[in-house]
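Objective 1b. Sequence-to-structure analysis of Prephenate dehydrogenase.
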Amino acid sequence: MTLLVVGAGTMGEWFARTLAEATTVTLTDTDPERAAAVADRLDARSVALDTDERFDTVCFAVPMPAVEAAIAEHAPTAERAVIDVTGSMAEPIEAMRTHAPDRERLSLHPLFAPENAPGRIATVADAAGPATDEVRAALAAENELFETTPDEHDRAMETVQAGAHAAVLAYALAAEDVREEFHTPISGPLDDLASQVLSGSPRVYAEIQERFDGAEAVAEAAERIATVDGTGVEELYREAREQR
């Protein structure tokens, strides 16, 4: 199978590397030098963004704001299947249905940074077939795949990404620097988590906040905690326990 990966960033490189043994990989990117560098590392090849070549499968590994335009431009080059690994699902799937209605369609969301692979991958097989089955089999060799729906996935991202990132960022902005000896079994891991989040790409985190709701709910909860008395805080702890 021949595979074109549109987007040679960290996720595109991870996907290309993971599929390299099962497919013949080609990369393209808005930055041709980046695509060429990734291709060299993977012993693959790169092509210009406006290539007229056709491939069995085209994978979109671009930033979320760019995915719909990328699908519109490159889906016609796919002979068999189109795939996205952008992080959202409802909008890419709708775009793939529009621009590749007679192709196999698969949406994937690796729930980890590429440098932390392998891990869990959310999957929606919108139109499954031999090509997408081959891709899923290659990914399942090292990763744990689970099925979801576009709506369930995007709702979950409001909590596990937008809300979680907002809560950690708020702690990082509010916390004062203290000696290591003062950290508790709660604050120590939280401080480590903040460091982990802050080591990531601000642009990617910003895209997540723009795409998914969730930060507002965290802000509202923090406001409730900050504006009640001791008895009210106790009630909030009880409320949180009941929700879990």
